[in-house]
Amino acid sequence: MSFKEYFPQVKKIKYEGPNSDNPFAFKYYDAEKVISGKKMKDHLRFSLVWWHTLCADGTDMFGRGTMDKSFNGKNPLEIYKNKVYAAFEIMEKLGIEYFAYHDRDIAPEGTTLAETNKNIDEIVPIIKSEMKRTGIKCLWGTANLFNHPRYMHGAGTSPFADVYAFACAQSKKSVETAVELGAEGYVFWGGREGYTTLLNTDMKLEQDNLARFLKMTSDYAIKLGFKGGFYIEPKPKEPTKHQYDFDAATVIGFLKKYKLDDRFTLNIEANHATLAMHTFQHELRVARDNNAFGSIDANQGDYLLGWDTDQFPTNIYDTTLCMYEVLKAGGFKTGGLNFDAKSRRESHTPEDIFLAHIAGMDAFAKGLLAADELIKKGTLDDFVAKRYSSYTSGIGKKIVEGNISIEELEEYALKMGEVKNIPSGRQEMLESELNRILFK
Ligand code: XUL
Ligand code: CO
After folding, report:
1. What's the pLDDT score for residue 3?
2. Number of H helices, E strands in the chain
3. Atom 5, ligand 1: which residue's CA is nearest?
4. CA atoms within 13 A of residue 155's CA, in its CB half-sphere
5. Residues 330, 280: Cα–Cα separation, whole Å
């Protein structure tokens, strides 16, 4: 434990099983339990998020903070040092083995880039020593290229070369920090990489520059010996009207166009998927089908609100179908389930930090158990295999092997007269089967 305990009222959270009434206990997350040959904790690879958990104080568009995240610090550096100890205490008590951060979450911004870099250099050794003490690791790092006013028109897509240069310089330091912390991944989320109106935008130049930025930054990381995953995190809108990394399919097209698809995979965020009018599972499936599955920002949105609410994930249909895709993709390699989520503005007490994580961890543990059962039972696999079985022989086999011309297909259709026996899709039956596994 750190030299000072910030949350003495919360003890180490233990697994007590689904019948426990203790809110400070796991009902489904049993870290050491082996599921299909792998411990639950290694399937799920939970990660704490620095920006929400240690920094976000409940400020919204209409009101100021409701939570104190200064951790008794008296000046900016002391506040950020204390955040480190608080973060590791939270992770130790919850049994979370990874964390993710932006460069500007871990150290205060100074008046110059050099001063900010110096602040980072003060904090990084403290994080490293806490990592060494606890065995907790860094899932990924990233650069905050959207908060400072200089980035109001974008960073890697800024119309202004000086801003672009600044963003590259900041990213260089950010990559150095990630390497220093042994990060297993590095994320690029296009914070303000998009536009608000095309009337003032050279979209082609902005996207070409973004590709140059991604190439330069990742080249530099590789030069430093970084062996982890590079991820792009799609999001369709907010803060800009149109973000260039709109959704998984758009990003995959972008990566292929600029020949970056060998180097980058995707960090899929649940709330970003729904903002793009897709399900979370859809985005994961697109990533999986294109060998672009990397990592996950685990949260959920509110279907009645049109913005990124970053709620802790509690919808077990979503967590089940997410884990179904993760298992089908062969599990996480360098990625994990990163809680890009914050307790609600009204859930403002320190205890809520723990309760929110417990809710999210249990929802994913339950999802993992259900997804594993779904796969083992094979109901969906069998149904899908049967549904497409006409492509395994006869005319269908010729189609998928590319061994048939459109003229031959016309001849076949003319002879057929009309298509006979189109089977049912059985959606309701399959939904009911999912319910049976979840609620038995
Ligand atoms: C914003 C978002 C980011 C990224 C990291 O919507 O998800 O916090 O995860 O920059
Ligand atoms: Co995110």
Report:
1. 63
2. 16, 14
3. 189
4. 22
5. 18
Span from the CA of 149 to the centroid of ligand 2 (angstroms): 21
Residues with CB under 6 A from ligand 1: 102, 142, 187, 189, 233, 235, 269, 297, 308, 340
Exactly one of 102, 272, 278, 282 is catalytic; name it.
Answer: 102
Over residues 359-372, mean pLDDT:
98
Active-site residue, from 103, 105, 297, 340: 105
Say yes or no to pLDDT of 278 above 60: yes
pLDDT > 80? residue 2: no
> For this structure, is 148 an active site residue?
no
Rounded Cα gap, residues 116 and 150, in angstroms: 15
3-class secondary structure, 100: strand
For 269-338, the DSSP string reads: EHHHHHHTT--HHHHHHHHHHTT-EEEEE--B--TTSSS---BPP--HHHHHHHHHHHHHTT--SS--EE
Quote the radius of gyration of the chain (alpha carbons, Å): 24
Ligand 2 centroid–CA 222 distance in Å is 23
Question: CA–CA separation, 337 vs 325, rounded Å?
Answer: 13
- The number of beta carbons lying within 10 Å of the beta carbon of residue 239 is 14
Residues whose CB falls within 8 Å of the CB of residue 122, separated by 6 or more in sequence, listed in order: 77, 81, 107
Structure tokens at 231: 């991820």
Over residues 137-149, the mean pLDDT reads 98
Q: Return d(Cα 242, Cα 236) in angstroms, integer.
A: 6
Q: In whole angstroms, how far apart are CA 62 and each of 58, 196, 205?
A: 11, 23, 36
Q: Provide the β-strand partners of residue 137.
A: 98
From 353, 349, 338, select the one nearest 298 (Cα to Cα): 338
**Residue with CA nearest ligand 1 atom 3:** 189
Q: Which of 189, 275, 299 to mutate to test the pocket of ligand 1 (most atoms within 8 A of CB)?
A: 189
- Please tell me the distance from the alpha carbon of residue 409 to that of residue 152, in angstroms, as a whole number: 55
DSSP state, residue 262: T
Give CA–CA dist 245/273, Å, rounded: 12
Give residues with Cβ within 8 angstroms of 163, minimum separation 6.
150, 151, 153, 154, 155
Q: Note if 105 is an active site residue.
A: yes
Over residues 33-53, the pLDDT tens digits come to 999 999 999 999 999 999 999
Cα 188 to ligand 2 centroid, rounded to whole Å: 10
**Residue of the CA atom closest to atom 4 of ligand 1:** 189
Rounded to the nearest angstrom, the distance between the alpha carbon of 110 and the centre of ligand 2 is: 25
